[in-house]
Amino acid sequence: MRYNPEHKTRTRDRIVRNAARQLRAEGLSGSGVASVMKASGLTVGGFYKHFHSKDELVADAIAQGFAEFDDKANSILLDVPQEDRWKEMVRRYLSLEHCDHPEIGCPVAALAPEIARAEVSVRQRAADLIQERKDQLLQMMPGATATERERNFFILLSAMAGAISVARIHPEAADRQKILQEMQDHLLRSF
Fold first, then answer.
1. How many domains does the structure of the chain reveal?
2. DSSP 3-state assignment of 158?
3. With the CA atoms of 82, 83, 84 and 86 taken in that order, what torsion angle do they form, in degrees rounded to the nearest 10?
4. Of 31, 61, 138, 171, which is the most exposed, with the fewest CB atoms less than 10 Å away?
5. CATH number of the domain that 101 lies in?
């Protein structure tokens, strides 16, 4: 049975969406092709009809994770005054909800150490995606100059992703909340 080209595109998109969620939840080595294909309602045999390699799927899934996280963040920030958006971003990022749900959260907080050990093509794609986010968010970052805002973007991203990573280690919600709240308070006072 022949399918139209849109069917193949929709199927590939479904695979990438499922992979994005699974990779953020289980890590790059935790979720195999078989698991992603099964979650997509497909068999492993169909994988190479949509992707050249697992690395291609991983890179596309990371991009999808960024897109999903950005969409959610952008919808929340719409009603926030421009000068307060970075503060709201810090509050939302360093929330217990974000910490407790890596499958729908920021790919940097969920996957950075694993991406750093991935193939160069995956690392480059992730680096490009972070650069795109920096360019999109630069106007809302604190700082008097573009150089200061860029520096502050990387400080904020690194501090927030690190705090989420450390908080996720702790099994008790109260401990996670304390770590996140202390980092949030520090960042909001520091800029």
1. 1
2. helix
3. 90
4. 171
5. 1.10.357.10
Residue bearing tokens 């958006």: 85
Nearest to 60 by CA among 32, 20, 95: 20
Residue 23 lies in a domain: no
Q: Which of 164, 50, 42 is nearest to 99 (CA)?
A: 164
Q: What is the pLDDT of residues 152-170, one digit of tens each?
A: 999 999 999 999 999 999 9
Looking at the domain assignment, is residue 90 inside a domain? Answer: yes
Whether the pLDDT of residue 132 is over 60: the answer is yes
Residue 41 belongs to a domain? no
| Other Cβ atoms closer than 10 A to 139 | 11
Enter the pTM of the model: 0.89
Q: Is the dihedral of CA 163, 75, 18, 124 positive or negative?
A: negative
Query: In this predicted model, what pLDDT tens digit does every residue of 38-87 receive, in sequence order?
Result: 888 777 777 777 888 889 999 999 999 999 999 999 999 999 999 999 99
Q: What DSSP letter does each residue of 33-51 carry, written as one string?
A: HHHHHHHTT--GGGGGGT-
How far CA 57 is from CA of 67, 114, 155, in Å, comes to 15, 15, 29
Which residue range(s) make up the domain with 184?
53-190
Whether 26 is in a domain gets the answer no
